[in-house]
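Worked problem 6 (solution included).
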Amino acid sequence: MLEEDGKLCYGVYAGVVSSSKDIRTFVEQADLVIMLGTKMTDVNCGIFTADIDQEKILIAKNGYAGSYTECVNDNLDFYRFITGFAQFINPKPVRHNNLKIPPFQIPQTNSVMDQYLRIIEEHITKEHVIVADTGDSCYGSLAMRMKSDNSYFAPLFYNTMGYAVPASVGIQLAMPDKRPVVLVGDGAFQMTGMELSTSLRLGLNPIIIIFNNSGYGMQRVFQDGNFNTLTPWNYTSITKLIGGGIAQKVETVQNFQNTLQNAMQTKDSLFVIEALVPKGDISTGLKTFTDAAKREKTGICPFLENPDHVCSVSSSCGFCRASIWQE
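Solution. The predicted structure is:
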């Protein structure tokens, strides 16, 4: 929603899936956390690791205002609440007036996905809108810094596979001054990628980045099997099929950077990049999410290397203090 290069914007909070540990500390130690239209789902709560004192939460959405457990207004007009709340606030100097989202941090891993996503973040400008499909396209890119308002779209609530390519059509029609950069896995692309034909017919120019990891990469993390295998497509032939556009296949990080630069300079055509990802390679963001999901299913902490040792950070860990682990 917000330009993340702006003042007092500090990133994305979602429990252990947050953009950084500093953001977790900032939110979880706040005097008041106001949730505007927030859906309290497993994903938004970082797989139930959001560790916020319930007495410090105010939830406001259409038809509801109150705490996590008690409704004080079941007939709330959300628009009137937002506009009235904005008038009520009296801005004052705050102790965190130097907050700034850190650069997109790529840890010292061998993940090709991490490197691809780093390059994308480095090249996007105020002109671009990120449209991320579910899986690594989304969870790997959550920490990206957006350069303008309303410039990141993802189907997080239902994790709907196949969202991104058709969504980019509506997004560019609604915001014709923006150029979508679509992040989509090969599995999701095989579901709805033919909507590129609509983009071509309407004269749109999205950049479509297909992360080809030879199957349903996110599902492999939870349970692998033949059901995660896809029939290989010649993805760069999509432009021949629909009768227009440019398509290139890249196999290295350096080639990806050069090709992405070329795509962004080519503004009069839709541009498809097939980026090869080794089977089993996932981003750090997706690994954090899937580790949290595995803990939900097994109760085993993925961050404690030796389960026989006493954890030294349990008092400040959302995993251990979130209510789901205390039942």
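Discussion: The CA atoms of residues 1 and 150 lie 4 Å apart.
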